[in-house]
Amino acid sequence: MTSLSICNVGKQYQKGATTLENINLEIRSGEFLILVGPSGCGKSTLMNMIAGLESVSSGQILLNQQDITHAAPSQRDIAMVFQSYALYPNMNVYDNIAFGLQIRKWPKDEIDAEVQRVAKLLQIDHLLKRKPAQLSGGQQQRVAMGRALARRPKVYLFDEPLSNLDAKLRVEMRTEVKKLHQRLGTTIVYVTHDQIEAMTLADRIAVMKDGVIQQLGTPQEIYQQPNNLFVASFIGSPAMNFIPVTVQHTAQGRFVELKDQSGTCLQLALPAGLAVKTDQQLVLGLRPEAFSEVQPHKLSQAQVQQGEFLVEMTEPTGPDTLTLLRINGAEVTARVAPQANPQAGAKLPLMLDASQALFFDPVSGERLRALAQPAAA
Ligand SMILES: Nc1ncnc2c1ncn2[C@@H]1O[C@H](COP(=O)(O)OP(=O)(O)OP(=O)(O)O)[C@@H](O)[C@H]1O
Ligand SMILES: [Mg+2]
Question: Pocket residues for ligand 1 (CB within 6 Å)?
Answer without folding.
Answer: 13, 19, 37, 39-45, 193
